[in-house]
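Q: Give me the 3D complex with zinc ion.
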Amino acid sequence: MVNFGRIIGAVLFFYILSIAVAGQTVPASKDFASAAQIELLAKLTGKKAVKVSFEIGNEKRTLKRQREVKLTDRYSVFARKASANLLYRSLRQEGIKPQRHSYTTELGHVNTPKQGTNIYAIIPATIKSDEYVLLGAHYDSVKGSPGANDNASGTVLVLGVALQILKLNERKRNFIIVFFDQEERGLIGSRMFARKLKRDGMNLHSAHTVDQMGWDADGDKAIEIELPTPALEKAYRQEAAKLSITVHKTNVPSTDHTAFREIGFNAIGVTEEYKKRRHDPALPQRHGYL
Ligand SMILES: [Zn+2]
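A: Here is the predicted complex, encoded as structure tokens.
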């Protein structure tokens, strides 16, 4: 059972933190369990149906149709596409202009090149700034799992943070909000996105990626930060202290933040009880069931 209160608490933390990193402090609001987040969580995890488009017909004439399906995972090409479209619509409904970053990998991955789509949006600074703070989470899951914790939880967290950032009267830096594809296949979406930012000459202040925020079996509400730079560690610890949240630093590299660090950007991973989890294979927190 994914603990939504846990996600909301994490949103609060992450929001304040991201703003602090962006050079400003904003009073915390308790209003984080937005209807948009609850809806998105339900649809990503197959509790509620999502709309999918398909075409019928032949080469001469095709007709577009829509139907509703409940996702059983976010692993297949079909399910990832449906999820990407859902995320695109969710951002647009909230007044954030979404963009698609579709990619095909080059050789280097065994077998056939991989194709996928990251969904992202820029929330611009309100003053002149060429710096960007990236907040991201992967939306894909492993095969056969609704991936509620891994990583619908991080995905809805990032949406919540985006909505709060959008409401600010003043933003000292630009924000990039991004939902990565194919993390579970080897950080493919985030690596392709990091490369794109590099290629575009983007002045990235820092990349913050969130993975698995819904699990807190011991109820201590602690948050783990993965491989932070010293400056980011300091910022997280300062903000966490204000909220009396315990922070554990870990060296876990196995998620999207690595994609940014390995290409030379400042990066940090945010998670819940990953390193400190009990090593019981029967526990569902790794890939998460509702
Ligand atoms: Zn994950």
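A quick observation: The chain is about 35% helix and 25% strand.
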